[in-house]
Specification:
2 copies of one chain form a homodimer. By secondary structure, chain A is an alpha+beta fold. Helices cover 39% and strands 22% of the residues of chain A. The first copy, chain A, is elongated. The structure holds a DNA duplex (30 and 30 nucleotides).
DNA sequence: CCATATATTGAATAATTATTCAATTTGTAT
DNA sequence: ATACAAATTGAATAATTATTCAATATATGG
């Protein structure tokens, strides 16, 4: 292994910033970064990352990262899935630590579990603290980026 | 023409209620309704309807109607795109009439314009009234269904 | 360290989807 | 009504994406 992780991160990054209409197109962009592999692998990666294909006025169809739980559920009526109670995110020895208001940890952890970005292997929640266990070879910043999609509140936090 | 509209409505209905993984599958379901045409046409229809293909745990990828403006934007922070001010929807001679709070008509009309479901050709907004001009061969209920996706408030209105 | 199970990947190919081209129908303007 | 333009569609085919199969690499347990 070792290379797959880098590839998956690069795919996420490229897709989030560009309008990609085909796997071949994406394959070329990845080659430019020194990542060489075949379309078969890319097809599998896209499915693994749950990447969607959405209609686009200019390019017909383009790839798009899946909506985070936060985006999907925040606005809907009852607000059952909002990440309310979030306080902070810090890192210690590659592990993430989220602090929440008392009692909120497990609900936020379950949101993270549901989104299950590949950067995060899993999480353990107490009453007001969540331990985030990242995937190997994933940086602190990678984890932060993945979490921002799930917990919009993080965007405003500079820590 | 005459048949295309019926086909497009059937496609929307089937996709919204079932997990469809391929055009061939959809084609068969449409045949059962007495709608006969080819995959080429279906491919064009799906693009026309801006149907997306999203990752699904069970079936790999499935077709999905585009998110409405309402769903997309309601929950995000500032709420700039919510259909606030909506009051009622009625019909008169195939034309829809939306009543809003004073001053809200144009903002709601612009939300409808952006979503631009094919059932609606266009809309004209005054200060507190919006005129909805439906596509030919589209029923009142069709228009209502399309609008529910855009203006969730409609769901609660029995009119 | 060795043996075995699991994962990852490419090449080839199968399956699916989009497009081209021609034909036909529908709409518009005299 | 007639002529011309625009839209709709199917058949064939091109383009794209997913999967199969085999090979290789990686992890796990003794």
């Amino acid at each position: 292994m070792g290379n797959r992780t880098e590839r998956l991160l690069a795919i996420k990054e490229i897709i989030s910033g560009n309008k990609i209409a085909s796997q071949e197109e994406l394959l070329h962009l990845l080659e430019r970064r020194g990542l060489n592999f075949t379309q078969a692998t890319l097809s599998r990666d896209l499915k693994f990352l749950k990447v969607n294909k959405i209609a686009d006025a200019q390019k017909g169809y383009i790839y798009k990262l899946p909506d985070s739980i936060g985006e999907q559920n925040r606005p809907i009526a009852n607000g059952a899935y909002s990440a309310q109670g979030f306080l902070s995110l810090q890192f210690s020895n590659k592990l993430g630590v989220i602090k929440t208001l008392p009692g909120y940890a497990s609900s936020i952890a379950s949101i993270i579990d549901r989104a299950s970005p590949f950067e995060i292997i899993g999480s353990i929640a107490g009453d007001d603290t969540i331990l985030i266990i990242p995937h190997d070879n994933v940086t602190e910043q990678d984890v932060r980026n993945a979490l921002v999609l799930i917990i919009p509140e993080l965007k405003e936090q500079l820590t």
